[in-house]
Amino acid sequence: MTNRIFSFPPIVDSNSKILILGSIPGVKSLEKQQYYGHPQNKFWKIIFELLNEDFTEDYGERIRMLKKHHIALWDVIDSCERKGSLDSEIKNEEANQIPELLEKYPNILAIFCNGGKSYKNAQKMLGKHFKIPVFLLPSTSPLHTVSFEKKLEEWKQIKNHL
Question: Would you please indicate which residues are annotated as catalytic (active-site) residues?
Answer without folding.
Answer: 41
